[in-house]
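User: Fold this; tokens only.

Assistant: Input:
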Amino acid sequence: MTAQQPGAETVPDAMWSPALARGLIRDDVMRSMRYSDGFTDLLGEAPARRSLAQRAMHSPAVAALYERFWRPVMVAIMRMHGISIDAERQRASDALHLGGNQRVLDVACGPDSFTGFFAGQLSGDGFVIGLDNSVAMMERAVRDNSCPRAVYMRGDALSLPFNNGAFDVVCCFAALHLVPEPIGVLHEMIRVLSPGGRIAVMTTYGRESLLVRKGLELGAEMCGVRVFDRITIPAFFAAAGLTDIDQHLRGISQFVMARRPEQVSDPMRTQSWWRAKGRSIGL
């Protein structure tokens, strides 16, 4: 993999990452940073206990199937409903006002559905970090979707390895419904978002029909996938002091975006309140 250092020509990732990491990655994490097959590894061994869906995401075979078969199937289904994957990427890019020198973080990027596309929207010193905790997904992303201004890092979404306010844009479009503590991931995403920055999430939606919602929840629970209602994510953003909250519902998915104002309420207080609230509603 190669990546473009801000203000410089394209150089190998192993040369570029230390410069990128300076000022972005927490000091305690920097000490264990290493390079592995084109991506930066900031993790040791992954947790042993995972759901069926989470275990699958760490399988090289599943990563290959996702890229070669599942994604084309999803694209075909979207086309049947008049939805273009390129149009969805562009819609997300427009909603996040991508361009120029922005620092962008794509959380739980998988084999890269958005990271590379977003990188192509930037210029100057702009770059995108695609972060995932799966070695298989990182290897697939590096192999198939390397491009200038995109850097792939293996890290924990529940404890993002970055300093507070490090990014102008933070998004999660692939796996919020797979993580064991989605509220914790959202809190971390807001923590690393700079004042005035934008955040976006694409995840599941259980629909308004009780019958449809229960059916989706039952099937999802068997696979370890969470189905969100239409209230939880916008309410969390509001409780965290975010503004300009915008939600779009489509089929069994939802897209929620917000902006962090120049001053925001204490995130630790918000996290404590939402962890208590999350336990009461099963999050």
